[in-house]
Design goal:
Layout: H1 11-34, H2 39-43, H3 54-73, H4 87-101, H5 106-109, E1 116-121, E2 124-129, H6 130-155, H7 162-166
Antiparallel strand pairs: 1-2
Helix pairs in contact: 1-3, 1-4, 1-6, 3-4, 3-6
């Protein structure tokens, strides 16, 4: 049995799915343009009143990916101001996140399966091993927010489907 590296289980997946999300935002921009609707009508939309907006879903997906890579590598997480409001703003956020992830080499991430990962979120201190963090925390969080962004746009009538979400495998 061949083991998969922590790097291969993180950077390429986050990069691919964020790239797919960027392409979905392109389709959403075309949809908005064809209907002569400001993009903020879509980016400020949400599935339910107590849920985050599309823009926030994209921001959190990006933060999940860059945070995972930084924590696993033991480097500072770059801070991005959460000011994006248009599709082009969100695509720039995704591009910035992908560029950050591309700075990592496999040697920085591989071997972090048992690394202690500790941080606070929402007033709670979380403690994981690297593998638990990646598979049990980051993956579900990342995919939740990407999926929610997709669902907001799908519900708003953007012509996207499962193949847009998955991209080329």
């Amino acid at each position: 049995m061949t083991a998969i590296s922590m790097y291969q289980a993180s950077a390429p997946y986050f990069t691919r799915i964020l790239g797919n999300l960027s392409a979905i935002l392109d389709k959403a921009q075309c949809h908005a343009d064809s209907r002569k609707v400001e993009s903020t009508v879509y980016t400020m939309d949400r599935l339910y009143p107590d849920m985050f907006t599309l823009a926030r879903q994209v921001q959190i997906a990006c933060d999940s990916a860059k945070g995972a890579m930084a924590r696993l590598a033991g480097v500072d997480i770059p801070r991005h101001e959460d000011v994006e409001q248009t599709f082009s703003d969100l695509k720039a956020r995704i591009a910035k996140t992908i560029s950050f992830m591309e700075t990592f080499k496999p040697a920085q991430i591989d071997g972090t399966e048992d690394k202690n990962i500790e941080f606070k979120i929402g007033g709670h201190e979380l403690k994981f091993t690297g593998m638990q963090y990646l598979l049990g925390f980051v993956y579900p969080n990342f995919y939740f927010h990407v999926t929610t962004a997709y669902n907001i746009l799908r519900r708003d009538g953007v012509d996207i489907g499962k193949n847009d979400f998955l991209g080329k495998i």
